[in-house]
Amino acid sequence: MTGTARVDTAGLMELLSVSLGVYYGDFTVAAASENLTASQGKCLTVLRRGPVAMRVLAHTLTCDASNITGIVDRLEERGLVRREPSPSDRRIKNVALTAEGERVTDAIRAKMHATQEGLDRLSDQERDSLHTLLERVFPSQSTG
Asked: What helix, strand, coil percent values describe the chain, rounded to 5?
């Protein structure tokens, strides 16, 4: 026996909860500094990975389709996103970031100081390990 205590699943879940609370609070403040709600900011973050169908966006953000329509309408009014026909099915509307939307998304990330400071405490090897572990824990959410 090595003398190191094992962390059980409940302990890991608690630490994830605390971590996500810090991240979400940091994100909410950063989004607000760009005059966005947290939901609008999350929408931009999802779209940073590429254009997404409205239906998929609603599912990803776990909200009702009517809510997504309002969020996208407000982002579109600000010139942060645009609706475009899907290349595979012209009946489906995809939502894509504009150049300004990319700039705002990057600005939000840059203003997440508590999250940045926490991650900066990790060595390159620790970052690699954390990345690998998170991909294993949440494989369907991995961005590649």
From this structure: 65, 10, 30
